[in-house]
Design goal:
287 residues, globular
Length: 287
C-alpha cells in the first residue's frame, strides 16, 4: 500500500436519479448513485487526496448535464480536482459549440468519446473525428482513449494524425486477459508508447480478466509491460471505481499495482500514484 495519499486519475460518479445510463442494463449493479464520499468509503484504508472524474457514457444528449452536475459537485468538494467530459467528436468542427459550453466549467481538463463500443472500426480515424480532436489542443485539453485491444492499430493512426494533442490510454488498452491473449496487444502497446504525446493509465485491468477467478499473477505481466513500455514518467494510477467492483475491491486493486512496482524507487511510485496525474491533467492549475 502506498505510504502517501494518492491521486486517482480515473473515477466514475453517477447520478441515476437525474441522468440515464442505458449501458448499465447489462450491469445493473452499477446503476446506483456514486458520489465522492462513497468512493472514500470504498477505498478505505487507501488515502485518496484528489481524483479526476471520467465521464460515464451517459445517454446523449445528457453529457452536458453530466458535466454541469460534476462542476457543481467540485465547487463543494475540493477532492474532485478535474473532469474528463463526454464530447461527440465525430461531429467534427460543429462540436466546437458544445466544447465552448464545456469550457465554462473550471474543472474541465480533458474530454472522452468512447471508441470501444463503436461498430465502425474506423470510427476514430474518420476525417470529422480527427477534426474534432484537433479542436482540443488550442485549449490545452487532453483526450482519454478508451478502446478494446483489437482497436489499437487505428488508435495509433489517430494519434499520429494529431501530434499536438495530448492523449492518455485508458485501462492499458483493454487486453484480452480472460482469453489469455498477450500478443498482438503487447506489440501494439509498444508502438503506441513510442509516440511521445501519449500517456497510459494503469487502470481497469482486473475487469478484463474473469471477474470471479482472476489472480494477481495473471494480471502482473500486462501491468508490468505497460509500465515498462511507457516508463514511470508517462503512467498514472487509475482506480476505475465503481466499475472495478465488478471484479474486486478498491484496496485490492491498489495493493496489486503496488505489488507490481515493489522494486521501484520512492520517486517512481510517487510519479505513478500522484505526480503524473497532476502534471497530465493540470490539476495544479487554478480552478
Amino acid at each position: 500500500m502506498p505510504e502517501f495519499p494518492i491521486i486517482d486519475s480515473h473515477v466514475h460518479l453517477l447520478n441515476p436519479k437525474n441522468l440515464d445510463y442505458s449501458w448499465t442494463r447489462n450491469a445493473p449493479s452499477l446503476n446506483r448513485q456514486a458520489l465522492p464520499d462513497d468512493l472514500m468509503r470504498a477505498a478505505d484504508p487507501v488515502r485518496i487526496d484528489r481524483f479526476v472524474f471520467v465521464e460515464v457514457d451517459v445517454d446523449f444528449p445528457q453529457h452536458l448535464e453530466e458535466a454541469a452536475w460534476i462542476e457543481g459537485l467540485a465547487h463543494s468538494d475540493r477532492r474532485l480536482a478535474g473532469m474528463v467530459a463526454a464530447l461527440p467528436l465525430e461531429r467534427g468542427k460543429a462540436v466546437e459549440v458544445e466544447l465552448d459550453q464545456l469550457r465554462r466549467h473550471k474543472t474541465l481538463r480533458a474530454v472522452r468519446r468512447l471508441i470501444q463500443n463503436q461498430p465502425d472500426p474506423e470510427f476514430c480515424i474518420r476525417p470529422d473525428f480527427i477534426a474534432g480532436l484537433k479542436l482540443l489542443a488550442p485549449h490545452d485539453l487532453a483526450f482519454d482513449v478508451c478502446i478494446l485491444h483489437h482497436q489499437m492499430p487505428n488508435a495509433i493512426k489517430m494519434v499520429r494524425q494529431c501530434p499536438e494533442v495530448r492523449f492518455v490510454l485508458d485501462h492499458i488498452g483493454k487486453p484480452a486477459i480472460k482469453a489469455g491473449i498477450f500478443d498482438p496487444w503487447r506489440q501494439h502497446l509498444t508502438e503506441l508508447a513510442a509516440l511521445p504525446n501519449v500517456h497510459c493509465k494503469i487502470s481497469g485491468v482486473a475487469t478484463e480478466a474473469d471477474h470471479r477467478n482472476w489472480t494477481r499473477e495473471q494480471l502482473r505481466p500486462y501491468i508490468a509491460h505497460a509500465i515498462e513500455t511507457f516508463g514511470f514518467d508517462r503512467v498514472m494510477y487509475g482506480g476505475d471505481w465503481h466499475v472495478l467492483e465488478l471484479a474486486g475491491t478498491y484496496p485490492q486493486w491498489v495493493e496489486i499495482v503496488d505489488w507490481v512496482v515493489e522494486g521501484a524507487t520512492a520517486e517512481e511510485k510517487r510519479k505513478l500514484f500522484r505526480d503524473n496525474a497532476v502534471r497530465f491533467y493540470r490539476l495544479d492549475r487554478p480552478a
